[in-house]
Write a structure and sequence with these properties.
Layout lengths: L33 H7 L2 H21 L8 H10 L8
Helix pairs in contact: 2-3
Length: 89
């Protein structure tokens, strides 16, 4: 398992900076306004985010690479194969 859990007794004792953690996907930690988050936090959206993260993880495993090295083009192809809507046109 490629996961390091950092625990502390007090909030804020341990912090991971950019570049210190690899192979970590956090699909529900998204950037949005407080208004948009009201829609984003709905269960179907979280399910789609989780499925997308799982597909990215599978690509990384199949190619024996870190999830950070999965290209958007490769992920996009797999998501579209599964009928995921990536843009509104």
């Amino acid at each position: 398992m490629n996961c390091l859990r950092v625990c502390s007794m007090q909030d804020g004792d341990e912090r991971l900076g950019i570049g210190q953690c690899t192979n970590l996907l956090v699909p529900v930690c998204i950037s949005s306004s407080h208004i948009a988050y009201g829609s984003v936090r709905m269960e179907p959206v979280f399910m789609i985010l989780g499925q997308s993260a799982a597909i990215a993880a599978c690509i990384a495993i199949d190619k024996k690479q870190a999830v950070q090295d999965v290209t958007y083009e490769n992920l996009k192809e797999k998501l579209l194969d599964r009928k995921q809507v990536l843009s509104l046109q």
